[in-house]
Design a protein that fits this description.
This protein is mainly beta. It has a domain of 113 residues: Alpha-Beta Horseshoe (Leucine-rich repeat, LRR (right-handed beta-alpha superhelix)), CATH 3.80.10.10. The protein has two helices and 36 strands.
Length: 520
């Protein structure tokens, strides 16, 4: 009999709690003006609130454990009623239009483990005691892309079980609190795109040895590159780009065996890129050291032996020597950016042949000699070669004429000779063809007149002869036509007079006859 009474009592408590939570959800809906997206949250009928969309409950107690309302059309203040959901462990309101200050009503959700208020219209200063009040169970705090101001509260360091702290893209001021180094369970830390006062990364961050993702780009960081990151063995993504970091890249960074993405571009790093001993970072997918301006020495040969490498960006530096031939055999390479350095020698002979996903090769403003590799478009996906201001010779490969995806071919200021291949735009995707200041001869391919996408045609200062193809501007997108300083003859196409999109027309120093169209 006593057991039966206990069961009945528990059943009554369960029903009462369920009714209370159902009512709280209705209050939440009303606080947002009864949005249509929550139409199913209704007191009519006998439906279980645990079956409502965006709601998850504990099956035994019927208490709401999760509200996942990300990226739905809700607008208005954060409802205080959410704080009444005592069993809530996960709350996600990201990508919504909620407004107001940080909602202290969530402090009442003592079981909360995951709180995602990112990309909303919440703003103002975070409460000073936020780290004391949120509770020891919290493992994930996502506040990125909001409008929070003031300094980052040092009390966040009390959230000792926190694994993800995501604060990037706010309007915080001051410097990065050293106390965050106490969060030794952190696996994700993002502070990027925040205009902190100039300062160094805290030395205390050396204790964050469990970090997998560390993103502190565009944070006004100064001082030497933090060598302690080489002692973070779990690191997969490191992005300290667009700062004022100085010194050299510590060789130990190439021993991080789990590192996939390394972005330290747009700093003031100097010196050679040194690989000391075996190269352990074989899982690298992206290396971006660009725009440091004073990184020097040769490109490490080891970069050409990374089977997963998709992006290698070393542009705007002072690298010298030859491009390692092994770069041309990278099986996953998509983008190779080496422009504005002091590289010499030839382009890797196999470039494109062993890289089935190759799309972009950018090597402008170097001292590269030799011919353009024949196999750039062997994969059928290649889109862009920019190699201006080098010493390339030989002809433009005929294989590029069969490249259906070719969008951009910029070869100005080289020593190229021979004819421009017919069919460079057979598939109508070519937008830029610029090969001025070379030694090209023959005629301008007539097929270019049928190129529906061609916006820039720059072939000045060559030895081209014959007539200017009629109809170059029929596509309605041509903006630049520069064929000056050649051996062209015949009459100037009359159709150019009706070329409304043309912004620049240069025909000087040829053997053309007739009048320049009145339009110009």
């Amino acid at each position: 009999m006593a057991s039966l009474l206990l069961v009945l009592l528990l059943l009554l408590v369960h029903r009462a709690a369920a009714a209370d939570e159902r009512q709280l959800l209705i209050q939440i809906k009303r606080a947002w003006g009864d949005p249509s997206v929550l139409a199913a949250w209704s007191t009519s009928g006998s439906g279980d609130h645990c079956a409502w969309p965006y709601v998850t409950c504990d099956t035994s107690s019927g208490r709401v454990t999760s509200l996942s309302l990300a990226n739905i059309n809700i607008t208005g203040p954060f409802p205080d009623a959410i704080g009444g959901l005592s069993g809530l462990t996960s709350l996600n309101l990201s990508y919504t239009n909620i407004t107001g200050a940080f909602p202290t009503s969530v402090y009442r959700c003592a079981s909360l483990r995951h709180l995602d208020l990112s990309l909303t219209y919440l703003g103002g200063e975070l409460p000073v005691g936020i780290g004391h009040a949120l509770g020891e169970n919290l493992t994930s705090l996502m506040l990125n892309g909001d409008y929070f101001t003031g300094t980052i509260p040092t009390s966040l360091s009390q959230l000792r079980n926190l694994q993800s702290l995501v604060l990037d893209g706010n309007f915080f001021t001051g410097t990065i609190p050293a106390e965050l180094g106490d969060l030794t369970s952190l696996q994700t830390l993002t502070l990027a795109n925040t205009m902190f006062s100039a300062g160094e990364l805290p030395a205390s961050f050396k204790s964050l040895t469990k970090l997998k993702l560390f993103w502190a780009a565009n944070c006004s960081l100064t001082g030497d590159f933090p060598g302690y990151v080489t002692e973070m063995p779990e690191l997969e993504v490191l992005d300290l780009s667009v700062n004022y970091l100085t010194g050299s890249i510590p060789p130990g960074i190439w021993n991080l065996t789990k590192l996939r993405n390394l972005a330290i571009y747009a700093n003031n790093l100097t010196g050679d890129v040194v690989v000391d001993g075996p190269f352990g970072a074989v899982n690298l997918v992206m290396i971006d050291l660009s725009s440091n301006h004073r990184l020097s020495g040769p490109i490490p040969e080891a970069f050409g032996h990374l089977p997963k490498l998709e992006t290698l960006s070393l542009f705007f530096n002072n690298f010298s020597g030859e491009i390692p031939a092994s770069i041309g055999q990278l099986p996953s390479l998509v983008t190779l950016g080496l422009f504005v350095n002091r590289l010499n020698g030839t382009l890797p002979r196999d470039l494109g042949k062993k890289s089935p996903q190759l799309v972009h090769v950018e090597v402008d403003d170097n001292e590269i000699t030799g011919t353009i590799p024949e196999g750039l478009c062997a994969n059928g996906m290649f889109e862009s070669l920019t190699a201006r201001n080098n010493r390339l010779n030989g002809s433009i490969p005929a294989s590029l004429a069969g490249c259906a995806t070719l969008n951009n071919l910029m070869l100005d200021d080289n020593q190229l000779s021979g004819q421009i291949p017919e069919g460079l735009c057979n598939n109508g995707k070519l937008e830029y063809l610029t090969a001025g200041q070379n030694r090209l001869n023959g005629s301008i391919p007539a097929s270019l007149a049928g190129c529906a996408t061609l916006s820039h045609l720059k072939l000045d200062n060559n030895q081209l002869s014959g007539e200017i193809p009629d109809g170059l501007c029929d596509n309605g997108v041509l903006e630049v036509l520069d064929v000056g300083q050649n051996l062209l003859n015949g009459s100037i196409p009359a159709k150019l007079a009706g070329c409304a999109t043309l912004k620049k027309l240069i025909l000087r120093d040829n053997k053309l006859s007739g009048k320049v169209p009145f339009f110009f």
